[in-house]
DNA sequence: CGATGCGGGAGCC
DNA sequence: GGCTCCCGCATCG
C-alpha cells in the first residue's frame, strides 16, 4: 500500500524497496508511482506520451506537459484499420516542421495536424518528477483526451548518421537531369565537384529579413568495399556504375514524397539484389521556405510493391509504417529475418536488420559499399542568421546479395 | 539534427 | 504568488 504523498509536499516519504512500482509507459489519469532509483526510463523521465519540459520555477520538481498527438487532417483510416497517430517532436522547431506535412498514408491527401492535449481542465496533462535517495517519484495530473502517439524509438543511430534528411541519389537520377549528369561524371572519375550557383536565390522571407545565399557543394565517393567486407567473395559483384545506371532498373521505381519513409531499401527481384540507398544531398531552401536552413525533404522508393523492410532504419523511424509493412498488408509476402553488421563509418558500427522473402539462412553479403562525403558550404547571409554555414555528411551506400 | 533540462520573463488570475 | 507558455541556451548522443 502506497503511503500518502503529493509531489509538492515539503518532504516525500521514505519508500522501501518493496513499495517501489514497476515503470509505467502510459500512465493516465491522476496517478502516482515511485520507481526504482536505478530504473533507466524513470531516470530519463520518459513516457509513452510526448511530454515536453515546462518551466515551473522549481529546481526540485521537474514538470512536463503533454504535446498531444499528430493526426491526419482528413482523419483517414489505414489499410489495417488504424488511424494516423504520429509522435509530436519535443523540440518546438521540429514540431513546427511536422505540421502541414503530407499524411504518411499514401492513399490520403490530408496533412498532419497537432491534436493538442486538453486533458487537465482544458490544459495539457502534466507529469511531475522528483528524485530522492529512495526512488524516483512520479505524479500525473489529467486524463489524456487523445490517442496515444507512436512510441519513441531508437533514432540515435540515424541522427548520429545525419540521416534525418535525405534523398536517394538513385532517385535523384530520375528526377533531376542536371544532377544525374553530375553523377554520371562521378562514375567515371570517382571524384568530382559541382557548384549549385544556379540554385542560389534572392528572396524575402516572411521573417522580414532578406537573404542572399549561395551554395557550393562538393561530393566525393570512395569505394569502401574491401575495407568493410573482408569476406568479399560474391560471384555476382555489381559495381558502382550499375547503381547509377539510368535506364535500368531504377526506372521502375516511383517516388513517394513522404518524410516518414526516408530510408530506402529496394528489392530488385529481377537481379536478386537488395539495394540500399542511404544517400543524402544537401537541402536548398526555397524562396518561401521559412523553416530551418537545414531541414530537408525526403523521398522513398516504397511504392512498387517490392519493398523490403529494414528494422534498423525504417521501423525505427516510423513504427506505424513498419508494422504496416511487417504485416505484409501491401506486399502479401512472408518475410524472413536476417541480421548483418555493417560498418557505416570507421568510428561507428551498427547492426542492420534486414527482412526478406528469400528462403535463405545466410546473411546478406555485401557486394558493394561506398561512402560519400558531401560537403556543403553556404556563403552570404541566410534568412535566419547572418552566418556562413558549412556542413559535412558521410553517406553510406551499399548493396547486398542473398 | 532533435531530445532534454534549465531558467528568465511575460501575461493572466 | 502561482501558474502557463514562450524563448534562448547548453548538453548530449
Ligand atoms: Zn491521412
Ligand atoms: Zn495528452
TrEMBL record:
GO terms for cellular component: nucleus. Residues 3-161 form the GCM domain. It is found in: Nucleus. Keywords: Developmental protein, DNA-binding, Nucleus, Transcription, Transcription regulation. One of its GO terms (molecular function) is RNA polymerase II cis-regulatory region sequence-specific DNA binding. Its main location: nucleus. InterPro entries: GCM, GCM_dom_sf, GCM_large, GCM_small, Tscrpt_reg_GCM. It comes from the Eukaryota. One of its GO terms (biological process) is gliogenesis. It holds the Pfam family GCM. This is GCM domain-containing protein. It comes from Chironomus riparius.
